[in-house]
């Protein structure tokens, strides 16, 4: 039997070890529950690793050092080339009749979180491919998107953004004409676009025109450059970061698609959103309307490769039209370029809602009033 003078220190050491193990375990549980420690590692792609100075790359592009901009451009190029689809092992492969949802993302992460949350509750969402198209490289947004686990996800990055081109076209060139000067003043100043003011006499503002450039690039990229969607013939639904969807939006979208043969045989476009002044249970009916496309059909648009081919063949009409966004340009294509105008099947009770601010639209209205 062990002597008492030896047993006591051994027992003390043993108790201290047990106490240390319990303390360590409790600390681990506390850190995990308080979100200080992530519950699971984030995906590798777009993690900043040794590029620590990219962590604040969402800051105003004018403040970014040229070396930082160069590194952002390199990361964007790598991501667009890799085309990594997250959750593909769990939900893939993408079926040809599955819906591809393309979301245009700027930097309003609070709105984006509402959209993603609404998508997560949608019926059959696990069958879709979510394509997040970014015009700002932002670590917080990247981390948030890469944590989505309810369907396949891929990120693409618009490579001609104001963030990566802060002082050259399509960004803000130092020699661009100021917005409000007259054409005579612009000619004297000899600024870049002196001969090309818009319909209301204003000169180009890069922070507004980027939205249209981005839309055109992402559509081309999804239909022609992404390996996963290059030959996809199913529907592509276009959303924006400040949209919100109903739980049955996919069901209604597919119902509209199967109904076109009977109710809208010549339909090119499906539309899940509208601009009702008030929303009631009665207005939520799945009643659809077949009509000629107009600029109000710009929320929750869905079309297939056949329709996209018609749009792409009218690239000159789309790109040269005097428009800050894509909707009036699509209308111009429909009315001036196509042999037959676009026909749209729109839902009376919207399944896509706009929850953001209408800053660009307000500016457009004020210009029309001048």
Automatic annotation (TrEMBL):
Disulfide bonds join 177-191, 264-267, 314-337. Substrate binds at residues 104-108, 135, 210-214. Pathway: Protein modification; protein glycosylation. One of its GO terms (biological process) is protein N-linked glycosylation. Its EC number is 2.4.1.143. It catalyses: an N(4)-{beta-D-GlcNAc-(1->2)-alpha-D-Man-(1->3)-[alpha-D-Man-(1->6)]-beta-D-Man-(1->4)-beta-D-GlcNAc-(1->4)-beta-D-GlcNAc}-L-asparaginyl-[protein] + UDP-N-acetyl-alpha-D-glucosamine = N(4)-{beta-D-GlcNAc-(1->2)-alpha-D-Man-(1->3)-[beta-D-GlcNAc-(1->2)-alpha-D-Man-(1->6)]-beta-D-Man-(1->4)-beta-D-GlcNAc-(1->4)-beta-D-GlcNAc}-L-asparaginyl-[protein] + UDP + H(+). Mn(2+) binds at residues 242, 354. It comes from the Eukaryota. Its cofactor is Mn(2+). Its main location: Golgi. PANTHER family: ALPHA-1,6-MANNOSYL-GLYCOPROTEIN 2-BETA-N-ACETYLGLUCOSAMINYLTRANSFERASE (PTHR12871:SF0), BETA-1,2-N-ACETYLGLUCOSAMINYLTRANSFERASE II (PTHR12871). Belongs to the glycosyltransferase 16 (GT16) protein family. This is Alpha-1,6-mannosyl-glycoprotein 2-beta-N-acetylglucosaminyltransferase. The gene is Dvir\GJ11207.
């Amino acid at each position: 039997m062990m002597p008492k003078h030896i047993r006591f220190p051994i027992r003390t050491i043993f108790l201290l070890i047990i106490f240390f193990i319990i303390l360590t375990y409790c600390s681990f549980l506390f850190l995990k529950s308080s979100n200080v420690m992530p519950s699971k590692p984030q995906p590798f792609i777009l993690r900043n690793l040794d590029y620590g100075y990219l962590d604040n790359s969402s800051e105003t592009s004018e403040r970014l050092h040229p070396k930082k901009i160069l590194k952002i451009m390199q990361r964007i190029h790598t991501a667009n080339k890799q085309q990594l689809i997250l959750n593909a092992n769990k939900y893939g492969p993408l079926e040809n009749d599955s819906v591809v949802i393309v979301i245009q993302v700027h930097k309003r992460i609070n709105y984006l979180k509402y959209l993603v949350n609404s998508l997560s509750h949608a019926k059959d969402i696990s069958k879709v491919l979510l394509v997040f198209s970014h015009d700002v490289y932002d670590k917080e947004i990247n981390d948030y998107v890469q944590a989505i686990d309810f369907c396949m996800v891929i990120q693409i990055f618009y490579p001609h953004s104001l963030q990566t081109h802060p002082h050259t076209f399509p960004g803000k060139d130092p020699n661009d004409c100021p917005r409000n000067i007259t054409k005579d003043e612009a000619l004297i100043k000899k600024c870049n676009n002196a001969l090309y003011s818009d319909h209301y006499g204003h000169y180009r503002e890069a922070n507004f025109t980027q939205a249209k450039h981005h839309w055109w690039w992402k559509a081309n990229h999804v239909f022609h450059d992404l390996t996963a969607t290059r030959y996809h013939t199913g529907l592509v639904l276009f959303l924006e970061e400040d949209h919100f969807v109903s739980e049955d939006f996919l069901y209604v979208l597919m119902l509209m698609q199967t109904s076109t043969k009977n109710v809208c045989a010549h339909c090119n476009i499906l539309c899940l959103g509208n601009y009702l002044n008030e929303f009631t249970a009665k207005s939520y009916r799945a009643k659809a309307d077949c009509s000629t496309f107009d600029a109000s059909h710009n929320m929750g648009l869905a079309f297939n490769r056949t329709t996209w081919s018609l749009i792409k063949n009218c690239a000159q009409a789309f790109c040269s039209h005097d428009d800050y966004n894509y909707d009036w340009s699509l209308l111009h294509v429909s009315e001036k370029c196509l042999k037959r105008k676009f026909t749209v099947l729109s839902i009376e009770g919207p399944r896509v809602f706009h929850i953001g601010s209408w800053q660009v639209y307000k500016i457009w209205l004020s210009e029309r009033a001048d």
